[in-house]
Design a protein that fits this description.
The chain has 17 helices and 30 strands. With 553 residues, the chain is of the alpha/beta class.
């Protein structure tokens, strides 16, 4: 059997390696149009910022290593120009030799990855200081350009993973950074209230942020010297990074009968087969599906690409591995902040037909007497079933641990109440006696049953609509005077029992403290003495003040 793989980054090399581990008799050939293989796209910003000392660290294996270890023929600088599934042939052009040929296969794997988008007006002309961060060639070009030029200012177009990671790394090199983002918030993958923490961090680092804006014109001939945005901002630049996203590289498939999916990527089944049974697709070129909704999804991440490659390589050689779907889990660092998410947002959950319950949980990553710092967890569960649907977490420590615990639990269809029963490791330097994941489960379960939670956004909408509500601040008078929810009255928790007669038991009541624990006690008290409907303000006054700041920004 002859297996031909087109593409040799994360997915393609995983196919080849797994196929060889399963089968010593197969002929395995890999073609790639670039010079480098099996490199880390995600590591590129860290090399450019100087955090990774050597570019070689991003390329752990070369073609010779694969040949020696697995007896796999990897041909770099070979561009596959077309594929012919009906006769099981490909056409390939050897760039080094300057000649083309046809090659046969028994099984073909498309691992052609994705390509970076070039938005207007950058697509109208080539400028020597405008770059993508996608390939090793891009990385070398940016590195060489920065070494040869006195780069003092940079503009980053887009605020996804690569855009924000490049903003961090360039700022650490002493470069003045501006970000232009078409959406009304930074990092549109997460909710606006959570994204505002990122915006605050960027402002703290003196990174200029232009939201709801785009570049309209470029001044400069060989180089971009000034960018003028739609809203009239003029940005002087020495370097421009384009990071507005990627699209699946489906060119080879488009000239055949291979079906594309709803997302624009190649449609595959659970073993990565396309609509042509002897053609497979893996990695950024392939469509995946959401583990919760079962609907098609596109998540171009190295971790997903590796899984897909291993599954395809296994199936090609008689194995039984299948693709189980993805939650779309992601994480990145921004200076001393970690941002992570998994599963569905509240809006996505509602669109998928769920009745979402939303809570904000603000808790230290570990005991405060060992220096534990707060993290903010925004979580979503289905009101009817209790199934945990998604989470977004921002904090300075412990975020990676909690997002992975939640993603693992969600993979196995955990309900909110299940999170409380997880036997998680505890010691003061690592957690609190009730871990933030435990608290998240507790609050979600309470909120979907008899102890409702209301977000600051919904509270403000209710007030704006003129719906009656009495808001009780159960903190101390000193804390209340510092700042409080508009229209709230202050009844400290120790006084609530004896002063409850001052309140209307039939009016919808919202109670809050600083972060949520004391207000839950107040909620129970009022419900137990006959109040008709009492909700806790999600995340307490801390989250409310953050929300108000985000709306004024």
């Amino acid at each position: 059997m002859k297996i031909v793989v087109i593409g040799s980054v994360a997915a393609g090399t995983s196919v080849a390696a797994k196929a060889r581990r399963n089968d010593e008799t197969a002929e395995i050939v890999v073609y790639d149009e670039g010079q480098d293989i099996s490199y880390s796209v995600c590591g590129m910003p860290y090399y450019l910022g100087g955090e990774a000392e050597s570019i070689d660290a991003l390329i752990p294996r070369d073609a010779k290593w694969f040949k020696d270890r697995f007896e796999i023929g990897i041909h770099t600088n070979h561009h596959v120009t077309s594929i012919h599934p009906s006769v099981k042939e490909i056409e390939v052009y050897d760039r080094t030799a300057g000649e083309g040929r046809r090659e046969t296969y028994d099984q073909l794997v498309l691992a052609t990855g994705s390509y970076s988008l070039t938005p207007p007006p950058f697509n109208l002309k080539t400028l020597e200081n405008v770059f993508h961060v996608k390939t090793m060639e891009n990385t070398r070009d940016i590195d060489q350009y920065m070494q040869s030029n006195n780069v003092k200012s940079a503009a980053i177009i887009g605020s996804g993973f690569i855009g924000l990671e490049m903003a961090e790394q360039l700022t650490r090199k002493g470069i003045n950074v501006s970000i232009v983002e078409l959406a009304e918030q930074v990092f549109p993958k997460i909710d606006a209230d959570m994204a505002y923490y990122i915006e605050e961090k960027l402002a703290e680092q003196h990174i200029e942020l232009h939201l709801g804006d785009k570049v309209n014109s470029i001044d400069g001939d060989r180089k971009a010297e000034r960018l003028v945005t739609q809203k009239g901002a003029a940005l002087s630049v020495d370097l421009v990074i384009l990071a507005v996203g990627v699209r699946p590289n489906t060119l080879l498939a488009e000239d055949t009968n291979i079906a594309l999916g709803e997302t624009g990527a190649i449609k595959v089944n659970e073993v990565m087969q396309t609509s042509e049974p002897d053609v497979y697709a893996v990695g950024d070129v392939a469509e995946s599906f959401n583990l919760i909704t079962g609907q098609p999804a596109y998540h171009p991440l190295g971790s997903t690409a590796n899984k897909m490659g291993r599954i395809a390589g296994d199936h090609l050689t008689g194995g039984s591995l299948t693709f189980k779907g993805t939650l779309g889990t992601g994480i990145f660092r921004l200076f001393d902040l970690t941002v992570a998410y998994t599963g569905l947002s509240a809006a996505e959950a509602e669109k998928a037909g769920f009745d979402p319950v939303i809570i904000h949980n603000i808790k230290p990553a570990h005991a405060t007497y060992t220096g534990g710092q707060n993290m903010v967890i925004k979580a979503v569960a289905d009101r009817e079933s209790g199934r945990v649907l998604g989470a977004q977490i921002i904090g300075s420590e412990g975020v990676d641990k909690r997002i992975d615990v939640l993603a693992t639990a969600m993979t196995f269809n955990a309900k909110a109440e299940d999170l409380f029963h997880l036997d998680l490791a505890y010691a003061p330097p690592f957690s609190t006696t009730k871990d933030p994941v435990h608290y998240t489960g507790m609050v979600l379960e309470n909120a979907r049953k008899d102890l409702p939670v209301i977000t600051p956004e919904v509270l403000e909408e209710r007030k704006a609509a003129g719906q009656p509500v009495q808001i009780i601040d159960v903190r101390s008078m000193k804390a209340y005077l510092k700042n409080h929810v508009q229209d709230a009255m202050n009844i400290p928790m120790p006084d609530l029992r004896k002063r409850s007669a001052e309140l209307d038991r039939d009016t919808f009541t919202v109670v809050y403290c600083n972060k949520g624990v004391t207000s839950n006690t107040a909620q129970n008290l009022l419900i137990n003495i006959g109040f008709k409907e009492v909700a806790v303000l999600s995340g307490g006054n801390t989250n409310y003040q953050h929300y108000q700041k985000s709306k004024k920004a």
